[in-house]
Amino acid sequence: MAKRKLLFITTGGTIASVKTKNGLVPLLTSKELLAQLPELGELCQPETLSLCSIDSTDITPDHWVMLANAIRENWTGYDGFIVCHGTDTMGYTAAALSYLIQGADKPIVLTGAQQPISGEITDAKKNLRDSVITAIDPASRGVMVVFGGKVIAGTRAKKNKTISYDAFASVNFPALAQVQGNKLVRYIPTPYPSAPLTFYRELSPKVFLLKLTPGMSPALLESIFAHYDCVIVESFGVGGIPKALMDGFAAGLGTYEKTGKVLVLTTQVTYEGSDVGIYEVGQRVHERFSFLEAHDMTIEAVYTKCMWLLAQNCRSFTELQQKFYQPINFDTFFQ
Ligand code: ASP
Fold this sequence. Notes:
single chain; alpha/beta; eight-stranded mixed sheet; 10 helices; 18 strands; binds aspartic acid
């Protein structure tokens, strides 16, 4: 069988970094990066595209759209795509691409490293190799993160260690597969897409993520709602809103049909998700205004799904609700 043709799109990050007197800087071009691992040519036909050379701290939603556009423009020419990316915001980019590229029947793998590929001790080569093993598997499709041997759905990946090689966790959902040597051991099959391949080109910038802290003042809520259409609240535990903030939220939100403003409740606890109906501090929110609830979704997925959703210009809260709870790339199991 002919070797699969893969496009390696590089964006920078530690994987492509070299030591300078100002710290690690992503200076390697995509060709220089792949030249470090010539044996990849035995597994696939690699080609490269340099999209940018930045630390992922500097990645913005414009880069997510640029990435989706680059993949769209090259879609028919390749069997799969490997995006090399800094690890710090890779979870956000993987989630954003999951919403920007839907119904994908080819693999789009994001990977990176905790140590530069040019270093003597590095996880970069293994992660790149594992990404290729994943991308050449005929049953791989959709957006995934491959890191530390794990294959994680693009909407479930979270960086939860700053130093260690197993830096990414699959949150509230099992890893899709594990790479063992040259083998991909698949735990969760990704069904062939039932919807047609769709590339979206827009994300709304009007989404704000507010992390609650005990005793937070309501003073800022007015200006947050004046600047943003969607406020995602990272509340405590299974979810609720402090008494002192309730009037501020009610005033800022109004009703979606009149103001176009929406509130999404999630939790600052990484695992097991929200369940706002459990306590009185959550039930009082249900009684006071309409909101969406993240349940088992990651913050990265909620944030980017809201950016995608707001760009769809939903006419009613019901339409918004229906689209928000519609599962995309394993992002939620709440029905
Ligand atoms: N600061 C780097 C980045 O996100 C960290 C990494 O790639 O591991 O670009």
